[in-house]
């Protein structure tokens, strides 16, 4: 029997997803599983430069994989013909792949999936299956949006996140390092989470965010970093809507720069260690994995923190110029 009255839960009255016309799922990898399963994809071309959870998701759906390389502009070096049931998976790295380019790929290949995990604020291109995941942009334990024309009638079970949120609540009132292990355990636990609808908890948290402010703050920080770091950046980077992080590729010493930043409590992730096993030492993907510093520019920070980062990088970089 339905419970009525009593103490309050977290309010979820009137919460709406950022992407209104989406299938709301629990994880980015679930979005991919959903498309593979319901569009009956037999083979997927995916980039070498990708997180291994994506590869694993494809394997779990028993879909064949062929890897391709990306070029210096972070675009697919791909020229094959797609047979029936074959699809091309394009990752929008750091939001640097604009929709005009996506349209060209769509026109040429028809069967494409765009991964906007690093481009939450980039609107989907029309008629293109597009994946968004929320953990990389906001303090939520999971959550993802899939834009697709493939709407399934069968009801998927809804995920639950209450026992995966301690690190997010903990970091709010304490330090990141105290909760880092719990964060890692949460990421590990997600490996065994099946395709589900978004949890009510994550949906509620997402429904209470100020997206306009978040997007603007990210853009201002990114722009500030860009003005200061472009002269030493070997990647040609442009300003994009509500960016994920600022990708800084030095000609030399990127790996040491990352260590220096981390020593100064500026946390920069390595995307993605598994690639060192997959790619040759002289490949672009190897170089990115070793040397690309992904600089935080998110809504928690303003120019004060950006100045600390820039100063640390310039001090490290010394006279090293491109
Ligand atoms: C580029 C990219 N796409 C997709 C995913 C999968 O997202 P999720 O962890 O929400 O399944 C990741 C995860 O790290 C990613 O980096």
Automatic annotation (TrEMBL):
The lineage of its organism: Bacteria, Bacillati, Bacillota, Clostridia, Eubacteriales. Gene3D superfamilies: Aspartate Aminotransferase, domain 1 (3.90.1150.10). This is DegT/DnrJ/EryC1/StrS aminotransferase family protein.
